[in-house]
Amino acid sequence: MKLFKYIFCFGVSLAVLNTVSGQVAENSNLYQTLKTQDSILFDAAFDSCAPEVLETIFTEDFEFYHDKGGLTSGRDNFLAPMRENCANWDKNAPQPSKRILFPNSLKVYPLYKDGELYGAIQHGIHRFESLDENGNYQKGDEAQFTHVWIKDAAGWKIKRELSYDHQYKPN
Questions:
Q1: What positions does the domain DUF4440 occupy (predicted)?
Q2: Tens digits of per-residue pLDDT, 44-98?
């Protein structure tokens, strides 16, 4: 009987831990919020070229880890090249590159401390395409990304970003 109680309590504990720390459902508020934030991020970075929007998305101590470009420390250092590119971008010309999020690749994992949601890990797979000399988008690298989002009084901000496993896949 004691063994049965032990096994039962262990099973219940595992079930609770799995539901608390696992990936959230796609229809959850957290998933939808961070999916929206992801869209705002990449719209500002690629479609609308809006570094002022990106400034509100990243923490000041933001760190960007890239498997080919290395580490960039600090929000201002990360945004400096974008500010320069956006200042020189002709808004009447097509966007020189774009990002495509792979369907069903986005996953969100909540982070708790003492039962309070303080952050989340967002993971997905995307591809980038760039305009060639004829004005046609050409497939670029596919890559995985991981964002560590932190929740503060102003909302959700990215503290760390990893961009890795960049591979050219023509199809």
A1: 43-158
A2: 998 888 999 999 999 999 999 999 999 999 999 999 999 998 888 887 888 888 9
pLDDT in tens, 111-135: 999 999 999 999 999 999 988 989 8
Structure tokens at 88: 């020189």
Counted residue by residue, the chain has a size of 171
Cβ atoms of 162 and 65 closer than 8 Å: yes
Q: What are the DSSP calls for 75-130, one per residue? A: HHHHHHHHHHHHHT--TTSPPSEEEEEPTT--EEEEEEETTEEEEEEEEEEEEEEE
Q: What stretch of H or E contains 52?
A: helix 51-57
Residue type, 47: D
Q: Are 158 and 149 in contact (CB under 8 A)?
A: yes
Q: Enter the pTM of the model.
A: 0.82
CATH of domain 26-168: 3.10.450.50
- Which residue type occupies 50? A
Helix (H, G, I), strand (E, B) or coil at 32: helix
